[in-house]
Design a protein that fits this description.
Blueprint: H1 24-27, E1 35-38, E2 57-63, E3 67-76, E4 79-88, E5 92-94, H2 99-103
Antiparallel strand pairs: 1-2, 1-5, 2-3, 3-4
């Protein structure tokens, strides 16, 4: 089984979302400590995280020129391990998980 096996449904884009990459992906500014969602853009193969992390939320710990370092937790044999991955900006978007907390 390959790196992208069993991702036919998972990596499909929504209706009217195919074609050129949205500029919003490149124009958003990220800061260390922000929460981000990892949503894989199947049109861009470089810096693509493993499909396990698609839809997961993590915290930014490192910012490079084209990629972002993200820390998140993965359940392994009943315990949670902290995982560190680097993904390109196209596969990352700001998370709404703290929006309600910040608005209060």
């Amino acid at each position: 089984l390959g790196y992208r096996s069993k991702t036919r449904k998972k990596f499909t884009k929504g209706f009217r979302r195919n074609g050129a990459v949205r500029m919003v992906n490149y124009l958003t500014t990220f800061k260390i400590g922000d929460y981000v969602d990892i949503i894989v853009d199947s049109a861009i193969h470089k810096g693509m995280p493993h499909h396990f992390y698609h839809g997961r939320t993590g915290k930014i710990f490192n910012i490079n020129k084209r990629a972002i370092g993200i820390k998140l937790f993965k359940k392994v044999k009943g315990r949670y391990e902290e995982k560190v991955i680097h993904a390109r900006v196209e596969h990352v978007r700001p998370s709404n998980c703290r929006r309600a907390f910040v608005s209060r």
